[in-house]
Batch of 4 targets.
Target 1
Amino acid sequence: MIELLLAAILVLAVYAMLTRDLLHGTIALSALSLLSALAFAVLKAPDVAITEAAVGAGVSTVVFVWAIRATERMEKQ
Amino acid sequence: MPTRLAALASVLAAAFALWPLFALDVAWPGTVRDYLEAKGTVESGAMNLVSAIYLGYRAYDTLGETVVLLVAVTGAIGMMAAGSALAPREAGGAPVEPARSPRREARSRQRTELIAALSGKLGAVILIFGLYVMLYGHVSPGGGFQGGVVVASGIVFLALGSHGAAPSPLVGARNLARIESAGFAILLVAACLGVASGKGFLAPPLPGGDPVSFIIVLNAVIGIKVGAGIGLLCVAMLTEEAA
């Protein structure tokens, strides 16, 4: 279970670094936070899981998405 | 390729830093851990050992964390204020309205109804849950920081539900800033009360009062301060975009 979660987290982290689209990267980071919150809950650290879910998947995603909204695309799709 | 080289170097550095953890077979220091495991919940009265440690034994660290958060929010708001001051202005002093592409306008019109209908109502539920996490941090997982961040997401939902404008006074940036400052002031006063009554900095000030009630008070104050701070940051971003 935990190995599966960690592997998915690793894949999401690499994808977030390599993707050219900032929005895709942000959503990958948000999913990463959700999975790591699940991992913390599996490892019996519910306090950290609540923090990770609220900060990582919630507030920081909002901040990133709003920062990206203030930018313009440089390249043609 | 410099990026590859930097990536390789950082992986090597991480391996070098983590290697002693795996290579050494010296036992971890366990005195404090064993003490806290045996006595932590009894001495502080908090069932949740995490809360017992971070407000009962290490409240000074928690105070430092709230200062870090305060400085971070202040810095971010200051950067945003400087950014809008540097924005191009007309001769009269009014900010130049940036030309909006029709696609973006269509997109922002698309999002309004669905998000406003949903998130305005979800916000209240999330606020209640945040208050629960904050106030019951001594018996269940959670505490001031966690509850505060959940409260902040509730504030963000309320702000999203109102098209980026401030509907209720709670979501106004000015009020949130006031709440955060007041919360920090109350936290400092509560920390110093113990000094006045001779118990020591951050000690439960009341004579005969059990420490768990002080933990509840600290949790509530920290939660309100953190929620107002992070909520202020998000609300400032949302309303600046709308303006």
Note: The mean pLDDT of chain B is 80.
Target 2
Amino acid sequence: MDIVCVEDNEDFTFFLSKALKNQENIEYGIYGLAADALMALSNMEVSLPKMILLDIDLPDKDGFSFLRELRDSNVLKHIPVVMLSSSENPRDIQKACQLGANAYVTKPGGFSQIKVLVQDICDFWLRHHRNPAA
Amino acid sequence: MSQNNMIKEAIKNCEDEKIHLIGSIQSHGYLLAVSKEDYCIRYVSENVKLLFSGVLLGKRIDVIDQQIDTSVTGSTLIELLNTQLRTENFDGYNPYHITLNGVPYNLITHISSDFIVLEFEPDSSETKGLEINSFLGDVLIHLNIANKSLRDILATTTIKLKELLGMDRVMIYQFDDDWSGEVVAEAKESHLETFLGLHFPATDIPRQARVLYVKNKTRHIANVFSEPVNILSDQNITLDQSFCQLRSVSPVHIQYLKNMGVSASFSISLICHGKLWGLVSCHNYSSKFIDYKTRKASEIISSYLSNMIELKTEKKLSSKRAENEQIVDTLDKQIREDWNLRTGLSGHQVNLLSIGKAQGAALCMQEEITTVGDTPQPKDILRIVEAFYESDINEDIFHTSSLAKIFPFAEELKELASGMMIIVISRELKECIIWFKPEQLESVSWAGKPDKVISQGDEGHYSLSPRTSFEKWENTVTSTSQNWRPYEIEAATLLKDKISAYLKLKANEMRRLNYKLTQAYEELNTFSYTLSHDLKTPLNNIHSYLELYVEEEEIDLEDSFYLNKALANTKLMQNMIKEVMNYAQTTQGEVEFKKVNIYDIIENIISQLTKDSNDCFIDNQLAKDTYVSGNSVMLFQIFLNLIENAVKYQNKNADCFVKIYNKQYEDKIEFYIEDNGVGIESQSIEHIFKLFKRANKDSSIKGSGVGLSIVKKLVSKHNGTLEVTSEVGNGSIFKVTFNK
């Protein structure tokens, strides 16, 4: 799997998957609950995703706790995490950075921008970025 | 020496006369003083040789004891003194009846520091004892008729005392605040001219005489024409004669009585609440001796009278007091109900004038004057207030019945404001309440023109001679109001306390409201942030769906008017939400003040703004060391928005030019951002600082209408001010002022 998305807003999930489908040869999974996402990740130990797209507002736990658990895990700590949130609050951005997020992106206001963003992310994190060996 | 100073010295000399150490007695009696320790005779009046034989000074009292017939009372002089000393009771044995050479005498004793003073007076009243007792009973019953007015009681007393004393004239004399006095009751022989209603100046009864009147309540002068008899002594200190019955009289006073034609006088103090209220003053036009028992009886009557006066004035005062307390309570209630000092004190039927007898009142608060009743013009009131706070009067409650005496300029206000009572609410803010009393033209009848006659003695001292004429002399008192009554002053004091309590309450309430307001403001800020955040997501979704629809249905937007408008509006709304969040965010939080270099900030902004386009010349004219105390991020935002605006609204017909300069003052610093842009229409100027208001309707210039709101908010967070002057077509000048 290439990208794991943790996102609970159904509409945004819809746009995200549409945008991801436009990308060629990308495998992705979208999870509405942090718990589901963690479960899936622990089952993927053999082939970890190349990156995670993570929202802050989640129904079961917030994105920050998710991120903390990820970074505390020996297996998962190297996976790049890009925060994708509607919050522009500098405190949220700073917190994400402190907890070890690799990037912070605010949700765009329209589908065309979402497409551009997904394109950029895939280009950078899947095609240019080199992950340390797990 | 000026006339005035001469008078002052003369009065002082008169007041300095030590009349209790006069060293002589009146000639109708005899005086001896023995040491308390050994009964040795230390003082004798020169005339005792008429009573006793042999040298007395230095001898023990035994030397006269043998000559005295004490058979009436039974014990010897020594036995008497022993008992008196042992029981510490002298008055209880007075008078002691003795016979000398077959003549009856009253012996009156008292203690004067280390000495026992023995005074011998003729006893003319062997059988009068019983009569006096029944007379006293009769008088007291007469006085004790409850519903009699004070005036009636005083009149009755003079009649009864005249009957008892057999004097030609008995007057009751009441002191005023300034120790001048007025005859308020009189009983006299019918052929005599009345003194009733006449005023006597304060100098008629000088201070030290008043002091003695409080100590020793009776004073008898039997014959003004008799020569005083010196007291001889082997001691080097003068005998203190404060309590001496026979004490001789100051020559000035003798002259005074002689000028009035009086030959004998007798006076009794009336003391109310521990203070000399007045005197019972009795005159006889031929010499007259009043014996001890009669004097005692009249003293009893007078002390009973004092009590009656106390009771009557107390009663009058307490009913006035109760009435005023109720008024003050009502005022207090009104203030609290209105939650306003001004209306509470002046806007109801019960107002500042309900207290006492003032004709006008003014409330000076927050540089505004509210008046009730007849008062001077506000500008004159202001003048009085200013003068009061600049004077050295430190009392928080002050009253005068003659304002012009304190502030001469008030002479012209005398018709309405001769009397003034002021209570201070705040010295710092010059806030107060003032009551005014009008001038009361009062004609005062003086007993003789109260001019002092000053004569220069041999040693060059100025002394006061009593006036020689006591003929009624009329004098009109001007620039003076009725006196302020104790209950008026008390009510004002009470009101002052109530106002202080109210102001304290109000201050607390303000603090509470202020706190709530701050909280509400913070909440609103948080709320607008949260709300816009929550609105953002669905709006973004709508926008995305629209875009998707357009994309997937392959619609040409040029052809779809509705979709085009829908997309444009969602975009507009997205922007607005973004700006609201921006506003909420930038204006949140307290400013931590630090020294910030504004020159650097402007340079920074210029490089940022000219990076993308270079179509405007921005001139930073600040000195390199221009500092303001504030938050650097916020200050950056302030200048960025202002300069950005200046560049944004440039005039298409001129080369864009923006300059930033400042003016320094002692306590503030002003920054000017001046452009040659399109300018702002005057009717729009007041709106430009409001959220989402844009003066410029040119849709080609992008803007949200939030920038200046943020600037305004940030400037006020720095306790600064933001002003703008503008001319359409010629540009605008924004002025930002910060305190230093």
Note: Residues 486-552 of chain B form the longest helix (67 residues).
Target 3
Amino acid sequence: MSKAHVVHTGIITAIGNDTAACLQSLLEGKSGIGKAEILKTHWQDELPVAEVKLSNEELAGKTGVSPDWPRTALLSAIAVQEAWEPYKEKAKGLRTSFFSANTVGGMDLTENVYKDFITDVQSVALKQIINHECGAITEIVAAHFGIGDFVTTISTACSSSANSIMMAAQMIEAGMLDIAIAGGADSLSKFTLNGFHTLMILDKQPCQPFDNNRRGLNLGEGAGYVLLMSEKAMQQCGAQAICTVSGYANANDAYHQTASSPDGIGNKLAMGNALKKAGLKPADISYINLHGTGTANNDSSEGKAVEAIFEGRVPMASSTKAFTGHTLGAAGGVEAVFSALSIKEGVVFPNMRWQTQMEDINWQVETKLKTGQDISHVLSNSFGFGGNCSSLIFSSC
Amino acid sequence: MLNIDLYINSAGIISGAGNNMNGNFLQNIPQYSANALPAVEPDYKEYIPVMQLRRMSRAVRMGVVAAKTAMQQAGIEKPDAMCVGSAYGCLQDTETFLGKMTEQDEQMLTPTAFIQSTHNTVAGQIALLANCNGHNLTYVHRGHSFEHAIIDAKLYLQQHPGEHLLVGAIEEQTANSIKALQYAGATAKEHYAPGDVMAGSLHAPVCGEGAAFFSITQQPLSEKSIHIAGLDIFRADEQTAFEKISTFANNNSPFDVFVSGMNGEKRNHAFYRRLGEEIFKYTPRTTFKQFCGEYPVAASFATGMLFHRIFPGIDASRVKNIVLVNNHCEYYSCWKFTL
């Protein structure tokens, strides 16, 4: 049985258009949260977002695809291109697959024509609605890159792309595939912005995850993928592993459709079972990339669950959402890239804007950049609506 | 071909051709003249407290009750894990929120419809009602959403042997989704009868919907259990699909019945007729989309029909090995079941 090795990454977020640019921003403490400029919404001046400051035409130009694609597909294609470009010629004959999660599908286009669609469907160009489905986003990107041995789309809200990495790792371990590009993408849309706003969990200022006075989350957009290979594929492609996907688990909180249980039942199960799968003890974990959205509810239940699993001896931990915002279906993919970077570069990213210790937990997040660290195992958490909780563990080779 | 090797021990089915909650599933062949077949829904009050029911959209109601039925029939209170497929997700709630957002220019909105619009709402609600903390995934990959849930079940059971899974699929139709599918040429505008579907004379298929959930284990739980002995899935053009189906047939024959996913549209009918004449020449053939209509997870309806040993027009007592070939647009699946 071959493990799934992370050999390369691809990413685009508000803090950078590729892995190197994102890393630079993480090291320099440069946040991507600010005023919406591309997304046209009633809430432009009130709700900050972590937006990729490129128009759809500019995004499309980076990969040579149609600017008529939904924005989620445009973001996805850029990150896939970065992850896949160095190996696509070397992978001939290997079974190559694409596991891409998203939650928003083509909603950014649909929402602009929905009024017209209701009154007179003929007045709406088919291209505005034809890629509305979440699965369509994955398929048009897969077709552009000629990836077809296995293509799937997972949608489990904010944990979506952690689950696509989990499934990809399993299929490589089971010998069903050789190569997987796994992660997810999501663009900003009025639909999601307004949806989260009605839940009253959006921060009107840049968010402060794990701060006692946190006010909520900022939505972000982007795409993040890890390129996973079996040992056989690495040999053929001459690829070096950055780390392996050593553990994964998916659990359900079964508490409430949107809220997490106070003690983080699902969170604890996901983290505990991922450790079990990896054959690791809590003390083996060097760094936790927290889900840490900045909402009162998430950070409290995640914080308590972490405290319980690590029995009070919590390793270095931080949320990177103060940089990227909450990229929803892309978050697990984006943070998998950050986890791989943490191992590769020996760094722990700061939990930005932290000021005040949370009253209901007895441990502290890392607030300053740490460099020169020996990072062997990173735990990455992704929790979401529908009670979906997933944890991944990345381990140095 | 994927080495699936799983057993289906029970089924909960809600479809345009009726549901299996009262013991007479498909006893009477449905009659209609329609371009869309709404699911025949059971009396949900028997399954879900009225207060909870009021907040649930049709997709959630269908999914939850089909799941409950599958669990009851298998004699379990809650599964260890679940895998769900749904290409379109919760359309009704999505449209409600989208409609209000556009009408009210993004103001004075309430969260309920948004909360329930996410694709994993059905799986989340089943987990919530059954208090199931296990693995919980939702696949949203067009005409392969159900098949990917089956593959996930296989992967999960490999690592968690002996556990009991709930696997299912759900799709709801709305007036607007039918309108959009008609605009794209994927659903009929004219009204058709079951005979028209079977004759393959449609300009576009009749739109279906429904939910089908199954208890799935690695070993059979009773003599009712049926075996998924093989599965191959691919996205392909017709010629490539023909070749792949031919390979699947060669590797898995003989079969006692060929269950065809023919949806009644002319070209689709010609394709399945060619399969019947060239690949499954000596195998009796039957169809199911005249019952349930065409929708991305229609293979789940067919699976439910096979679980109930219903093979329209064929002597069921002689059936042991079944091949099911289905497609939704260019998404194909070939299944081998044994009774």
Note: Chain B touches chain A through 55 residues (CB under 8 Å).
Target 4
Amino acid sequence: MWNWDYVNDLLPSLLKAFGVTLGATIAGFLLSIVIGLVFAVAARSSIGPVRWIVRAVVEFIRSTPLLVQLFFLYFSLPMLTPFAMPAFITGIIGLGLHYGTYMSEVFRSGIDAVPTGQWEASTALHLSKRKTWLSVILPQALPPVIPVMGNYLIVIFKETPTLSAITVVELLLTAKSEASITYRVFEPYTLAGLLFLVTSLLFSFGIRLLERRYFGTKQLTGGGKR
Amino acid sequence: MIAEAQRGPYSEEEPSIRLEKLGRQQPAKRKPIVRYQSIHKSFGELEVINGIDLDIFSGEKIALIGPSGSGKTTLGRMLMTLEEPTSGSILIDDEPLWQMERKGKIVRANEKHLHRIRSKIGMVFQHFNLFPHMSVLKNVTLAPRSVLQLSKEEAEERAVEMLRKVGLEQKLHDFPAQLSGGQKQRVAIARALVMQPKVMVFDEVTSALDPELVGEVLTVIKDIAEDDDMAMLLITHEMEFAREVADRIVFGAEGRIVEQGTPEQLFENPQSDRLKSFLQRFL
Amino acid sequence: MNAPWLESLPLLADGLLITLQVTLLASLVALLLAAAAGLARLSRYAIIRGIATGYVELFRSCSLLVLLFWVYFALPFLGIELSKVTAAVLAIGLNIGAYGAEIVRSSIKAIPSGQHEAGIALNLSPNERMLRIILPQAAARMLPPFGNLLIELLKSTSLVYFITLSDLTYEAMVIRNNYYTWTPQIFGSLLIIYFILSSCVFVTFRLLERKLTAWR
């Protein structure tokens, strides 16, 4: 049932694919942060329709499966637009959009936690909207939510196998093709599973350690009501 | 009884005359219902109670006063089995609370033992701790039905009587969220009373109330104090009230009992400097 | 504008049935596991706590799709052959149940200690305290996060496409293979169907929450 020699032969290609997985994870994560910030700020826009549209888009994307969104992007977009992107890029965009909506909620809670007095003080000091966001609000909103963001990094990591549906050659797809070549199914899938499991566990313990270290002391207070 | 609240909670008569009027038996003739013996309590490094010996006699009303951090709340909580003494023992009706005998040896009490002895003690909390998802009536009948095994009718009968005693029989089907602080505390008192404990702990029960609501609660407690059979441990900052209701005042500071005596002795003739400086803040 | 692909709607209806079936069954499994593991993590006994924590940490760290593959394709090599539906329900239930356990645990822990103390002061037994005082209050708090979790579960059923179980997503793909030019409409409609299903879950939980917190 378990052949160590086979495992040895298997590891190089699995680890190489793991690299693709990590690449997609990080790229998707970074994109989700950018999109999340855009959504979070836009959701607070003073222009009514903008707020409404952003909320609707966020709700829609969050309520529908990533897999279907990937299919839509990969198969439909080339038909509707002149763009035809390679699978890897499509996958990253899919991840970024989907998890951007979750990130926007995370950022929203961080922003809401900044005392209203900070906004009021910025207005009193005649700071521009841009200055207010960049120098006053975001530096206070973001640090407390970093652990939650870290958790979403792990979530994105565990979702990358879904990208195999649009032919991104990541870890699961590689395990699958190895299994189909050698007809040995147990080792590839178990190894893939273990790689995801161990990496996730290590990373989440890392986040918890960081959380413990930085959140005993750091309390952002500038007065004002919340 | 509610009319009293409007007149104000503080009687103008001398406390000692009042006691005689009520024909209250002097506590010294009764046996101790609670005995704290060499109690020490630390929370980690912090020593909160530093060697306390205290007897509470059956039916006696004791007011426990002192600065914050003097361990008075902890003393009350230990009686209610919410905290365990680091060393020392508490006797309820001559039975140890936290220790029991098993096969001839003294061991730490198990839940069954605690449950049996705990039935003699009741407590009213500073923050009321009513059950928000239950109506007032349900709050008061829950324990009689489940612990005392009373039927629904019996439990409700007792509950209504108790709620009438605290002036809230109109609010039977209201929920805690609909009540004022003073009303909530009165429900909490009824809830604890209905279990007929032999000793009741009142842990700073008016400290969380708006000033204008304090009176109604104090009036209810004064009324309850007429019961000769139930001892009361009143942990309080309300000095005038303590003077009126208590048979004995115990002044504690830094985890020890500094001085104790009748209200007249303590308030008119404080012996220790510690008590003198404490009282300066109030009188 | 005629849309010939709409003739295949019955296929989508079949897919919808499978999706709902998997969602319902996996939810039951997840709920049971969440309740058991969540309560077990609060147990006085270290062994029970340990087992529950082990389960939660393990299955929260698994990639669901990889777990699904493993349960369906690799388990047979250990002698356990499961049908597609069973494999899906098991994998999804185990994974989502681990997240649910955390919701149960944190909702119970969030109940103020004063409630426990009042229960002790009234001499209620530990079981009575949990059943009559703590759990009813915790249940109200659990509803919103469980609603969200259920929506996640619904979305994750689309992954059964990978083990060729004929759910909504799979059938949509089948239709698309026959009506290539209608790809955007087909996938667009699929998104809308999932959106409607998610919204139903959301509304149901909102109504439940309102009913359970009338006392607030």
Note: Chain C has one domain: 7-212.
